[in-house]
User: Fold this.
Amino acid sequence: MPIHVAIVGSGPSGFYTAEALAKSDTDCRIDIIERLPAPHGLIRYGVAPDHQTTKNVSRNFDKTAARGEVNFYGNVDVGHDISLDELRAMYDAVVIAIGSPEDNKLGIPGEDKDGVIGSAAFVGWYNGHPDFVDLAPDLDTANVCVIGNGNVAIDIARLLVKTRAELSHTDITNDALDAIEAAAITDIHMLGRRGPVEAKYTNKELREMGDLENCVPRIDASILPAAVPEDMEMSDRDRRLRNKNLDTLREFALGAAEDLPKRVHFQFFAAPREILGGDKVEGIRMERTEVVDGRAVGTGEFFEIETNLVLPAVGYRSGGMEGLPFNDDWGVAISDDGRAGEGLYVVGWIKRGPTGVIGTNRPDGQEAAKQILEDIAEGSKPGREALEAFVTKNGGRIVDFDDWLTLDAHEKAEAREGAPREKLITVAAMLRVLDGA
Ligand code: NAP
Assistant:
């Protein structure tokens, strides 16, 4: 009997697990179950629209989905249309690959004001994620504060200052493109609670900030050390990469004489303490910090920035799933290196937290496949037949891989000139295309 494996989530970690199982010598039936009609998770809805080369990996995922052993079940919400326990009763192995879709909180007063938008929602909005189509962020503000010094923060800052010409050949939605073009934004404040040495963005992403049509990076050169201090412990590779970031920031400081209509201000040693205003954000109160033993410690000196839009990009967490052992403090599943129960596995960000690049998920997927094949010699459960019967009996509309190819072709046909696609941004619109209503 083949081993029937359900993979919940169709982002990178889910697809890499499917690929590893499909390429193994063991007879497996692999079903990728996805809440939304469209596959690819973080590639479609998280990777910045102007990073199309990164998004190209989805072609390999489609090749995996097209394999005989693999089925795609889109528009099936585990936890709503079917419970995890029900799924486990149908499959020899269930792999949870749902990532970390929720924002970490700042945990400061005023965070719930109108105009504070976490990166999950904001990135989801410009990427056409059905959960965030109605976000309608108010971009009628000169100053925007982006909190955090990671790649997501830098993605957001860059997208907000790019021109229509710089964005129109990407798969940013038409709505977001129009809103960004019409925005009143002139100054973006990138606020890091620690210093330039501790900044987490990668050098390629940082350098992009110096190569924009309408925007110039600004930084106070006097805070930049010549190099990463010798007594800071890190690998040689990390030291090299961080020194590269310092070099890039220094180049930005030297080039600051150039004047363009928009500016991104790299501000360090500044931690958010309070969001100011009434119902709506009117400003942010920051405290200057110093780094002590690697941690940002307040100095007691405060300053304020006037703004109507605060975008925290301070990392993600998972909300878990009923039936999955979960550490709510850390926002990750509880597992023994991926084994979360009999026939239950976790992979990717829900296993190890939201770090690393897309490719980091590949060894993760291979490891999950290895564990499944070590633990289960032969299948004994019905797998996809039971899933299909269950979902359709309850009136669900499964979106299969051929349906996805129809949606994909539709989006490509609807693309504005030069763009790869115009995304269908609601589940209803996707189903209308499929069912011809
Ligand atoms: P991240 O790299 O962990 O960065 C989070 C940032 O938020 C850090 O600067 C962190 O500062 C800061 N932060 C956390 N809590 C804070 C608080 N309470 N107040 C102020 N600042 C706070 O996370 P991310 O940017 O969400 O990225 C997630 C992963 O996806 C990363 O591995 C990233 O490299 C990857 N990614 C890659 C790309 C790409 O390759 N182009 C694009 C997007 C994302 P501390 O350092 O002080 O904690």
Summary: The domain at 3-101+318-434 is CATH 3.40.50.720 (Rossmann fold). Residues 106, 147-153, 155, 192-194, 198, 200, 202, 205, 271-272, 296, 313-316, 354-357 surround NAP (CB under 6 Å).
